[in-house]
Amino acid sequence: MIDGVIPRMEIGQKIKAVRLKLHMSQTEFARLFGVSFATINRWENGRTTPNYRAQRAFEQLCKEKNIPEEIL
Question: What's the rounded Cα separation, in Å, for the pair 44 and 14?
């Protein structure tokens, strides 16, 4: 926390947190998005970021699974 402000999670951290909350492996999660296990791994580790379409699909998944908005 910096000066009383809680930093927002990076997209990779959000993806990992949601995947773990859903008790899914990276491979299972990748199937939901039509990407490879390696892509999910790179997203979670911050080496790459999901494109706009994947980010919107991620947000929709969170809504469908009732993932709290504070994660987003």
Answer: 8
